[in-house]
């Protein structure tokens, strides 16, 4: 057994009850640009999965000359295997609101929307109560900012930022062409900084403890810590905040059931790491980036079933507007089924891999582009399981 | 504001374009054609089909050329191996979702997907044929338009057309993922929803998913039946569009060849809707003057003004659904097609000594909505269906091809008589503003005894492609019986495309504007851009057609409806006077309020 | 059940009469009785001055905005990978037997509709189901039967 390399952290769920007051007072006393500099300096990257530097996003939004600007908190956590944002919103919602307020203050936005998926409707009552009090509190502290909640209605694709804007605007949640990017033309066509729930809480904590202490954690490319959603074949399923920089092996040593054959890092749209690659694969931007989903599979699991499950998910949850994604997902799904049934030659898997590559290159948004991740990583590493 | 210029390279060739241009625009400038499906010159950018993906140096993904703005220093490759592989895959994917029964498809040879498949020599059987496994509907309940979901490639051109050009939105995208489709409200038949049958979606559908319901076989049956007397009427803008579907460049006037072709196909009598367009001017002009008199002299407050035209059946269906409160404002005149139909089976039949039950009346229209119009229960004034079959310009072209007629080499022939004579005022019905111009030429002269005060009778302010046009005509030195109009300024407006019509009607309802007379055409540019005209269509093509229409008018011996000798004759012999008893029986109609979806 | 006009007006008051009120209105109707009828959808479209087809297209995009009749309690069992691995099929079998309906169907008394849905964010505590907005994680067949019994008694 190797040494454990996992370092548990307690920033996100730290709940001393003073956060809102101390951090907001501190931020209110700072210049907008100084807040943004602090964020840039921290090296914080978006925790939703795409990993765009948060400080830069705020800087770009602030730079836009527009009376109306918006902050959006993306709580449409729909990636299979991810459930950390629900826990955050359930236990420390005020820290999310604080993060939104900091962002609003920095970029010059007066309204923030928290877009939460319909599957988390049961949180709404509590969230609304806390939010009403919070909106009063920030007014009293002199912030010209109000937060409103908007709900989704069951569509994974609305986690894609431009699809989310469309949904708030009352339309089908279909991703937009980019450019323009949200920082230029986002919600209602106005400059918008959209951040994941966890990112905003980290913003709060960075403003509390300073960028310097945050960036002491993690690695060059992956600063700080991250909340992981651990599920699958593990005795320790749950939510864990860990310092970044560990390898998949480090992770499996702590969380595996002793028989782990693969870990799906980053949810259904992430990459499947097989046992032979555990040791070299760093979890982070230098290796496998992740929105925090870690799904473990032991040797009793058929990777064919796993892949089929993912592809059914994507075929249903694709918005359907672009050809590569709408039809590609169906072809990948029906293709592996045909190979399994012996209706297509196993070499058809190679044609499908090329198709997945086309989807990666030509789909309109991240959903269609990322289906190749699970497809190719599972087909490459578990080809026999797919065929036989 | 001056636009900045952007320098980029496409396939290593430098090019400079205006800021805001797309990669597609830049490629076009260098004569590189990047294939497209969802893109259309009349519509906003979608970026859905992804057929136009290109490679951008330094970028991981392949941007869609139609949806990506150029940027300084960009290097684009339109035919790299990466691009070719992706593009071929995308075409193959579309084919897997598409019912490729090409040989029996109505759009065979005219399908943009088929053309791309041909160009790229794709392997149609590479992927699993999804269309065989999925369920889909073919909606052929409408007399005008067939919607076949098995051929739909979800490019959404129809949806954008219906929403942005026509403000109808009978079609929308519904569901998502593998269930995504183009739907009406609750997937009802096109015949049961707000669809105006304008056919603009048909004009823009790249495949056979939206086509006109064709009556070619029925018409062949009729012309080949010696017992049946078949009359055919041709609408004003067919003569300036038809050539495009038979190998000629847009803007060619083919009136004489078209008449010649119709005779060779075997129609017993080839007549002109332009005749009844002239008649429409007499009836509608009189109706307008009557309404004005009631309002100005009798102070009758129940008179509905402004009066709007009623020639465009797409417009009629639109107002029936969307502004039922304005139905009294619509002229009660039937459209020229239906006036013609009613007269063909009464006046014409009597004059020719024909039994009406042995007659078939066919019309050639630039329009799909005319098919619906002919089917309306009101349109049986003769006691029979006044117009039996409506063919679009495209269907006529198909008949001409089927007949083996070498169109380009045909001699010019003249329309038969009676109901074959017309004026330049009737020809311009085919262009937006044309009905207004024709009406003014006649009404002004009736009221003042003088020609309209415009050089060569060309009322330029009502011409052109501006969405909503206005014109004011001061009426002075009137003839004694029109004394109540002395010094009045007739205020007119013209809109084409239903989105513009909607804007205008909203302004009328709110009281923002005050007009006496409004001309509305459902289609962009008027009938010349009709849903039954040759495909493709674009602003450039429509401009060529418009030029041709005004040329045709300028070349006519008679340019005013009231000077058409057959018009004078029909009133003397048959109808009596405009808006008289007989006219009301045969030439006027009424409208119904329709549902909100 | 609340009058639809009341829901529409209440939401318009809060969210305005622009298109962005559409989702809250549709969600309001669904929260009240789990699905939206044709007449209601048309009323919403006319109130917001939107095309009916467009509103239909928007509603059908979202899994939770049903436009087909649903029961008083809509059961959605998560079908995605973790819940699949944790035995969602057994839960569905149990529910089908308990309610005497198949997946996708509604009981004759219009009380329950049984559906599957994609990931609900409880992968560490699967299998999970939602009954309307209430969440029930870490299900076993026995627990599922007990929960249904509670709802039957309601």
Top keywords for this entry?
heterotrimer; A: 388 residues; alpha/beta; Rossmann fold; Ubiquitin-like (UB roll); de novo design (two linked rop proteins); five-stranded mixed β-sheet; four-stranded parallel β-sheet; 16 helices; 9 strands; 14% strand; C: 154 residues; alpha+beta; Glutaredoxin; 2 domains; four-stranded mixed β-sheet; 4 strands; elongated
Largest sheet of chain B: 4 strands, mixed
The multimeric state of the shown protein is heterotrimer
Spell out the helices and strands of chain C N to C.
Answer: HHHHEHHEEEH
Please, what is the CATH homologous superfamily of the largest domain in chain C? Glutaredoxin
- What's the number of extended β-strand segments of chain B? 17
Radius of gyration of chain C, in angstroms, nearest whole number: 17 Å
Largest sheet strand order of chain C: 2-1-3-4
Strand content of chain C: 5-15%
* Largest sheet strand order of chain B: 2-1-4-3
Number of H/I helices of chain B: 18
> Roughly how much helix do the residues of chain C carry, as a percent range?
40-55%
How would you explain this protein's 3D organization?
Chain A contains 16 helices and nine strands. Chain A folds into three domains: 19-215, NADH-ubiquinone oxidoreductase 51kDa subunit (Rossmann fold, 3-Layer(aba) Sandwich); 225-298, Roll (Ubiquitin-like (UB roll)); 303-387, de novo design (two linked rop proteins) (Up-down Bundle), CATH 1.20.1440. In chain A, helix 2 (32-42) packs antiparallel against helix 3, helix 2 (32-42) packs across helix 5 (93-107) and helix 11 packs antiparallel against helix 12. In chain A, strand 2 (111-116), helix 6 and strand 3 form a beta-alpha-beta unit. With 388 residues, chain A is of the alpha/beta class. In chain A, the strands form two sheets. A five-stranded mixed β-sheet of chain A has the order 6-5-9-7-8. Chain B is an alpha/beta fold. Chain B has four domains: 5-79, Ubiquitin-like (UB roll) (Roll), CATH 3.10.20.740; 93-212, Alpha-Beta Plaits (2-Layer Sandwich); 225-275 and 337-409, 3-Layer(aba) Sandwich (Rossmann fold); 281-332 and 431-587, Fe-only Hydrogenase (Larger Subunit), Chain L, domain 3 (3-Layer(aba) Sandwich), CATH 3.40.950. In chain B, 33% of the residues lie in helices and 13% in strands. Chain B contains 18 helices and 17 strands. Chain B has helices spanning 23-29, 81-96, 112-120, 157-165, 200-204, 216-223, 255-265, 273-296, 313-322, 336-352, 369-375, 393-402, 424-427, 434-448, 498-510, 539-554, 565-575, 581-587, and strands spanning 5-10, 13-18, 55-56, 75-77, 138-139, 145-148, 172-174, 181-183, 210-212, 229-234, 269-272, 307-308, 359-365, 389-392, 468-474, 489-496, 517-521. In chain B, the strands form five sheets. In chain B, strands 2-1-4-3 form a four-stranded mixed β-sheet, covered by helices on one side. In chain B, strands 11-10-13-14 form a four-stranded parallel β-sheet, with helices on both faces. In chain B, strands 12-17-16-15 form a four-stranded mixed β-sheet. In chain B, helix 2 crosses helix 3 (112-120) and helix 8 packs across helix 14. The relative contact order of chain B is 0.12. The model of chain B has no long low-confidence stretch (mean pLDDT 96). With 154 residues, chain C is an alpha+beta fold. Chain C has two domains: 4-61; 73-153, Glutaredoxin (3-Layer(aba) Sandwich). Chain C contains seven helices and four strands, in the order ααααβααβββα. Chain C has helices at residues 4-15, 22-33, 38-48, 52-61, 81-85, 88-99, 141-153; strands spanning 73-78, 112-117, 129-131, 134-136. Chain C has a four-stranded mixed β-sheet with strand order 2-1-3-4, with helices on one face. In chain C, strand 3 (129-131) and strand 4 (134-136) form a beta hairpin. The longest helix of chain C is centred in the C-terminal third of the chain and has 13 residues, at 141-153. The mean pLDDT of chain C is 96. Chain A binds chain C through residues 77-83, 85-86, 117-122, 150-156, 167-173, 229-233, 237-239, 268, 293, 295, 301, 305-306, 309-310, 313, 316-317, 319, and chain C through 18-24, 26-27, 30, 57-58, 61-65, 80-82, 84-85, 117-126, 130, 133-135.
């Amino acid at each position: 057994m190797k040494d454990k390399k996992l370092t548990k952290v307690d920033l996100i769920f730290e709940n001393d009850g003073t956060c809102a007051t101390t951090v907001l007072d501190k931020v209110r006393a700072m210049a907008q640009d100084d807040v943004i500099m602090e964020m840039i300096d921290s090296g914080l990257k978006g925790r939703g999965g795409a990993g765009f530097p948060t400080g830069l996003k705020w800087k770009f939004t602030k730079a836009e000359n527009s009376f109306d600007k918006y902050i959006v908190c993306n709580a449409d956590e729909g990636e299979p295997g991810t459930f950390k944002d629900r826990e955050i919103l359930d236990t420390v919602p005020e820290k999310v609101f604080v993060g939104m307020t900091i962002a609003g203050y920095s970029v010059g936005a007066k309204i923030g929307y928290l877009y939460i998926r319909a599957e988390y409707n049961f949180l709404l009552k509590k969230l609304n109560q806390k939010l009403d009090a919070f909106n009063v509190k920030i007014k009293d502290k002199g912030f010209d900012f109000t937060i409103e909640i908007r709900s989704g209605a069951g569509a994974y694709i609305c986690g894609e930022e431009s699809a989310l804007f469309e949904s708030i605007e009352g339309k089908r949640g279909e991703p937009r062409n980019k450019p323009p990017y949200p920082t230029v033309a986002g919600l209602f066509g106005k400059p918008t900084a959209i951040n994941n729930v966890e990112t905003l809480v980290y913003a709060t904590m960075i403003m509390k403890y300073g960028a310097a202490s945050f960036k002491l954690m993690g690695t060059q490319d992956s600063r700080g810590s991250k909340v992981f959603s651990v599920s699958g074949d593990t005795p320790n399923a749950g939510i864990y905040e860990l310092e970044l920089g560990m390898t998949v092996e480090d992770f499996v040593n702590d969380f595996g059931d002793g028989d782990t054959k693969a870990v799906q890092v980053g949810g259904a749209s992430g990459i499947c790491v097989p046992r032979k690659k555990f040791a070299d694969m760093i979890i982070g931007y230098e290796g496998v980036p992740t929105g925090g989903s870690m799904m473990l599979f032991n040797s009793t699991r058929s990777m064919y079933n796993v892949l089929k499950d993912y592809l059914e998910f994507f075929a249903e949850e694709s918005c359907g507007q672009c050809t590569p994604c709408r039809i590609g997902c169906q072809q990948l799904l029906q293709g592996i089924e045909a190979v399994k049934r012996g209706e297509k030659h196993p070499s058809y898997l190679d044609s499908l891999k090329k198709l997945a590559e086309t989807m990666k290159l030509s789909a309109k948004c991240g959903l269609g582009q990322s289906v190749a991740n699970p497809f190719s990583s599972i087909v490459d590493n578990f080809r026999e399981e797919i065929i036989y | 504001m001056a636009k900045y210029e952007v320098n980029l390279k496409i396939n290593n060739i430098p090019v400079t374009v205006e800021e805001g241009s797309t990669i597609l625009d830049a490629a076009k400038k260098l004569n590189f054609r990047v294939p497209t499906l969802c893109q259309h010159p009349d519509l906003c950018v979608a970026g859905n089909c992804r057929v136009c993906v290109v490679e951008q140096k330094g970028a991981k993904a392949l941007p869609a050329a139609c949806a990506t703005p150029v940027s300084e220093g960009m290097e684009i490759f339109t035919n790299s191996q990466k691009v070719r592989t992706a593009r071929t895959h995308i075409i193959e994917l579309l084919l897997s979702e598409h019912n490729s029964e090409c040989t029996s498809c109505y759009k065979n040879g005219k399908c943009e997907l088929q053309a791309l498949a041909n160009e790229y020599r794709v392997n149609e059987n590479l992927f699993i044929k999804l269309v065989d496994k999925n369920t889909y509907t073919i909606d052929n309940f409408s007399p005008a338009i067939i919607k076949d979901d098995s051929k739909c490639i979800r490019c959404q051109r129809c949806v954008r057309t219906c929403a942005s050009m026509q403000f109808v939105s009978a079609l929308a995208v519904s569901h998502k993922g593998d269930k995504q489709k183009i739907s009406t409200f609750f997937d009802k038949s096109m015949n049961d929803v707000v669809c105006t049958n304008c056919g603009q979606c048909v004009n823009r559908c790249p495949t056979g998913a939206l086509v006109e319901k064709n009556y070619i076989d029925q018409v062949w049956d009729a012309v080949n039946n010696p017992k049946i007397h078949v009359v055919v009427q041709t609408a004003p803008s067919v003569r300036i569009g038809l050539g495009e579907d038979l190998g000629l460049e847009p803007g060619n006037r083919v009136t004489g060849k078209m008449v010649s072709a119709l005779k060779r196909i075997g129609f017993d009598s080839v007549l002109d809707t332009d005749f009844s367009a002239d008649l429409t001017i007499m009836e509608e002009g009189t109706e307008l003057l009557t309404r004005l008199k009631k309002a100005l002299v009798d102070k009758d407050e129940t008179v509905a003004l402004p009066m709007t035209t009623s020639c465009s059946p797409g417009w009629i269906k639109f107002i029936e659904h969307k502004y039922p409160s304005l139905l009294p404002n619509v002229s009660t005149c039937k459209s020229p097609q239906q006036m013609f139909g009613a007269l063909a089976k009464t006046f014409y039949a009597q004059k020719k000594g024909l039994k009406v039950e042995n007659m078939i009346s066919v019309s050639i229209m630039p329009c799909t909505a005319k098919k619906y119009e002919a089917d309306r229960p009101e349109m049986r004034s003769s006691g029979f269906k006044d117009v039996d079959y409506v063919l679009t310009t495209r269907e006529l072209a198909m008949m001409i091809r089927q007949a083996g007629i070498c169109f380009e080499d045909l001699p010019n022939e003249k329309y038969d008589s009676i109901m074959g004579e017309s004026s330049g005022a009737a020809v311009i019905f085919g262009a937006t503003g044309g009905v207004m111009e024709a009406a003014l030429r006649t009404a002004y002269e009736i009221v003042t005894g003088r020609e309209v005060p415009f050089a060569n009778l060309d009322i330029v302010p009502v011409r052109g492609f501006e969405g909503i046009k206005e014109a004011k005509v001061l009426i002075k030195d009137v003839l004694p019986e029109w004394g109540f109009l002395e010094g009045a300024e007739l205020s007119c407006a013209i809109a084409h495309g239903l989105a513009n019509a909607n804007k205008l009607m909203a302004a009328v309802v709110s009281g923002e504007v005050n007009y006496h007379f409004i001309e509305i055409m459902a289609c962009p540019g008027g009938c010349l851009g009709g849903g039954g005209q040759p495909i493709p269509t674009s602003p450039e093509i429509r401009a060529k057609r418009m030029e041709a229409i005004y040329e045709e008018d300028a070349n006519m011996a008679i340019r005013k409806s009231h000077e058409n000798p057959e018009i004078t004759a029909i009133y003397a012999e048959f109808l009596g006077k405009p808006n008289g008893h007989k006219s009301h029986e045969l030439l006027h109609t009424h409208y119904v309020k329709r549902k909100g979806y | 059940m609340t009058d639809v006009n009341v829901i529409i007006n209440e939401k318009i008051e809060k969210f305005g009469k622009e298109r962005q009120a559409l989702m809250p209105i549709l969600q309001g109707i669904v929260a009240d009785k789990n699905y939206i009828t044709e007449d209601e959808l048309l009323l919403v479209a006319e109130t917001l001055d939107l095309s009916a087809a467009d509103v239909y297209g928007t509603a059908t995009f979202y899994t939770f905005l049903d436009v087909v009749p649903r029961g008083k309690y809509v059961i959605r069992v998560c079908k995605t990978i973790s819940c699949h691995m944790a035995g969602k099929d057994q839960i569905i079998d149990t529910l089908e037997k308990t309610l005497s309906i198949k997946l996708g169907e509604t009981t004759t008394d219009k009380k329950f509709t049984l559906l599957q849905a994609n990931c609900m964010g409880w992968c560490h505590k699967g299998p999970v189901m939602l009954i309307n907005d209430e969440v029930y994680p870490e299900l076993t067949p026995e627990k599922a039967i007990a929960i249904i019994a509670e709802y039957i008694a309601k």
